[in-house]
Amino acid sequence: MSPFELIRLAISRLGTSRLRAVLTMLGVIIGVGSIVALVAVAEGATSGITDRIQGLGTNLLTVTPGATFTNFTRGAAGSATTLTVEDADALAKLTGVAAVEPEVDTQKTVIAGLQNTTTSIIGTTPAFPAVRSYTMWQGSFLNQASVDGSLRVAVLGATTADDLGLDGSSIGSYIEIGGLPFQVIGILQPKGSTGPVSQDDQVLIPISTAHHYFVSGDSVRSIGVSVASADQIDATQALMTVTLEQRHGTNGTNDDFSIQSQAQLLSTFSSVTGLLTLLLAGIASISLVVGGIGIMNIMLVSVRERTREIGIRKAVGARSGDILFQFLVEALVLSLLGGLIGILVGVAASAAIGAVAGWGFVFNPLTVVVAVGFSLLVGVVFGVWPARQAARLDPIASLRYE
Amino acid sequence: MTVAVDAPTEGWGGQGWAPSSTPVIELRGITRVYRSGRLEVAALRGVDLDIWPGDFLAIVGPSGSGKSTLMNIIGCLDRPTSGVYRLGGTPIESLTDDDLARVRGRAIGFVFQSFNLLPRTNALENVATPLLYQGVGRRERHARAEAVLERLGLADRATHEPSELSGGQQQRVAIARALVGEPALILADEPTGNLDSASGAEVIGLLHELNAAGTTIVLITHDTDVANHARRQVHVRDGLLLQ
């Protein structure tokens, strides 16, 4: 019998019990659909977050206090000064460094007229827009004079400005941060990238002002360093490490800081999301296996029900191989058709989730190939045994079977 | 014990794989022993039988006589424990299971007491099924099946499923299926057993017609009235032929 005849026979057979065929396929539909959808969701989330990381700035190295910092503050709270404004100044003098931007942050309530919001207050320097890739929408950014004079001036993130009902006409007006009046001198252009943590919901004030009113000591949360060109990143990172080790009296084994490049951040992140994708796909494959067991179950019932048919076919000349392939192809048609419907369902689901979550429609053709391959595999693995049972039936006993 | 058999005056034309001078079926010393645990039951205890082209033979016997076992062996559904079985001159002992399936498809047409048509499959497809396993293309299958249905007066029932046909019609579809591959012989196992007397007579009449046209027919029955329609009879009793 040609494969074409077998497929026609299988389809006409499944056509006689459509409800059963659909219910049998449902397991595979759900399995394949959830694999396709989950992988697309994981990829969409990854690309969304990758965009955000890249949006943080170009050629960016970030210095943060190391693990010992945490232990140290636990021992002597308030005196933690592993990273300081002076460290930032020292880094700024190194060759290859284009700009340096130390940051401190705190959470405060901000009030403008009748509106209020609680957001992060970041103390920084005039280098912030250059290092972190922000541009101004209205007004101007903090200048060196405002830092030197610890002035109470503020630049608002786009979202924060929105929340407070401020726009271009509000430049020069006063808002209250943590109970103190600050003059609004500028509003940032929104970054536009998405995610659970907004890069546009923040208020920027001079770092000296922040240290004066809100954060005691002169420690900083992080130092953003913009490297002059991309090919200098590794050399600059090494130079910065040496400089900070000298300043902190450490020797590489007990460093109280860490320097992360964006590439490292991205690779750390992608290894995490890769693992997450694998995990989700793994969970979804369990449902595919369950779907396969469903097919096997129905095929076994079918062999039992159709014992007499098998006997008749053998009596009129069907070889064991003909019967084997007839039942195997039926299982394959079920699993493959279920797989194709599952792909459609999965793609539709991932498009819907993408639209809601905001990363748009992510579609990887490889997923389809893998999904089709897996459903074929399921069909073969769970179809072979029932088909062998059918092929092995004794024609005489089958013809007498009631 | 040999039986006087009318020398066949005609071959069964069209097949050409067995000259009319040799028997279609040649059984020599056929035994069949069933084993269940330590118990051995001999269903056949040495059967000799020749069936000639154009023959119309009734194998008659009560249930338990071994006639079903004999039919299974003649029909290549079962193998003898010992003895020689030649089908159209070819010994079947040496054949593999797949070869036996091929022989069933090409050389033997089965007609069963309970019709044994494929359910939810129309008459045309049922009749065409043996050709499917011979690798005949779809168009030719349908053309040949239609021709046989036409010959048996069932042309207007071609698209009906078995559940939409009367018992007599179903048995005629089954006979059409047995005929479609132009087999060496038709093996009919109690073909009238599930039919009312009118339909039964119709089926017997049809078998007569086919035999008159040259088809070799072997009828297995316990009913002597039915057996009397055959040209000759052999009786099976306790695994032996009484002729």
Structure description:
The complex is a heterodimer of chains A (402) and B (243). By secondary structure, chain A is of the alpha+beta class. Chain A has 2 domains: 3-52 and 268-400, no CATH class; 67-255, no CATH class. Helices cover 58% and strands 17% of the residues of chain A. Chain A contains 14 helices and 10 strands. In chain A, strands 2-3-8-5-7-6 form a 6-stranded mixed barrel. In chain A, strand 6 and strand 7 (180-188) form a beta hairpin. In chain A, helix 1 (3-15) packs across helix 12 (320-357), helix 2 (18-55) crosses helix 12 (320-357) and helix 10 (262-305) packs parallel to helix 13 (365-392). The longest helix of chain A is centred in the last third of the chain and has 44 residues, at 262-305. Chain A is elongated, with a radius of gyration of 33 Å. Chain B has a domain at 55-78 and 109-242: P-loop containing nucleotide triphosphate hydrolases (Rossmann fold, 3-Layer(aba) Sandwich), CATH 3.40.50.300. Helices cover 32% and strands 26% of the residues of chain B. Chain B has a 6-stranded mixed sheet with strand order 6-7-8-3-9-10, sandwiched between helices. Chain B has a 4-stranded antiparallel sheet with strand order 2-1-4-5, covered by helices on one side. In chain B, strand 9 and strand 10 (240-242) form a beta hairpin. With 243 residues, chain B is an alpha/beta fold. In chain B, helix 3 crosses helix 4 (138-151) and helix 5 (167-180) runs parallel beside helix 6. At the A-B interface, helix 11, helix 12 and helix 14 of A face helix 2 and helix 3 of B.
Count of β-strands of chain B: 10
Radius of gyration of chain A: 33 Å
Residue fraction in strands of chain B: 25-35%
Largest sheet of chain B: 6 strands, mixed
Q: Enter the CATH topology name of one domain in chain B.
A: Rossmann fold
Distance between the termini of chain A: 28 Å
Helix content of chain B: 25-40%
Give the SSE order of chain B as H and E letters: EEEHEEHEHHHEHEHEE
Structural class of chain B: alpha/beta
Assigned CATH architecture of one domain in chain B = 3-Layer(aba) Sandwich
Q: Number of folding domains of chain A?
A: 2
Distance between the termini of chain B: 8 Å
Arrangement of strands in the largest sheet of chain B: 6-7-8-3-9-10
Global mean pLDDT of chain B? 88
Which two chains touch over the largest interface? A-B, 21 and 27 residues
Report the top-level CATH class of one domain in chain B.
Alpha Beta
What is the count of helical runs of chain A?
A: 14
Q: Assembly type of the shown chains?
A: heterodimer
Instruction: Please bin the fraction of helical residues of chain A.
Output: 55-70%
